[in-house]
């Protein structure tokens, strides 16, 4: 009998520009499941959701609830990369511990990380902190880009200030 898995995919605006489209993630995870002879029991997807917090990701929360209820009796959760699972170290580590409490392992396919091994758990702990730092760097770069636009006399975006209106848009 095949072991079962859930697939979780996520993109945010920043992730889409990095080439991690939902379709590409799903296809890669499908291929991995087929290669490992796993049955995909359910797919969960958070489109356009930040990895900053699990609270803003309904599909992630549903998946974790389903695991806690024993739905499909899965053995694995497959994600494309750890950054797709989350970018907040505390959330990632807590979620991984919850998975392990229910005898479910996390596999980050592109990162070649499997929480069923000691080395995999150590790597997950380190990379979850790295993912959080990456999120902060993305935010800083975004804000720096907006500031540069203002310094060059351009419009940084957003609604027009009180008393002004946007022309042609």
From TrEMBL:
SUPFAM superfamilies: Resolvase-like (SSF53041). Transmembrane segments: none annotated. PROSITE patterns: RECOMBINASES_3. Residues 4-153 form the Resolvase/invertase-type recombinase catalytic domain. Pfam families: Resolvase. Signal peptide: none annotated. GO terms for molecular function: DNA binding; DNA strand exchange activity. It comes from the Bacteria. This is Recombinase family protein. It comes from Candidatus Blautia faecavium.
């Amino acid at each position: 009998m095949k072991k079962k898995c859930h697939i979780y995919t996520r993109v945010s605006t920043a992730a889409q520009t990095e080439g991690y489209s939902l379709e590409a993630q799903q296809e890669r995870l499908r291929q991995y499941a087929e290669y490992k002879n796993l049955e995909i029991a359910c797919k969960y997807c958070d489109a356009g959701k930040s990895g900053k917090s699990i609270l803003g990701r309904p599909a992630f929360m549903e998946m974790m609830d389903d695991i806690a209820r024993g739905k499909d009796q899965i053995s694995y959760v497959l994600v494309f990369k750890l950054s797709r699972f989350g970018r907040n170290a505390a959330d990632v580590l807590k979620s991984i511990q919850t998975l392990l409490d229910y005898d479910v392992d996390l596999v980050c396919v592109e990162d070649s990380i499997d929480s069923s091994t000691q080395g995999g758990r150590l790597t997950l702990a380190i990379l979850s902190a790295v993912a959080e730092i990456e999120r902060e760097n993305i935010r800083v770069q975004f804000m720096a880009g907006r500031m540069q636009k203002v310094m060059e006399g351009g419009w940084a975006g957003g609604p027009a200030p009180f008393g002004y209106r946007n022309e042609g848009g």
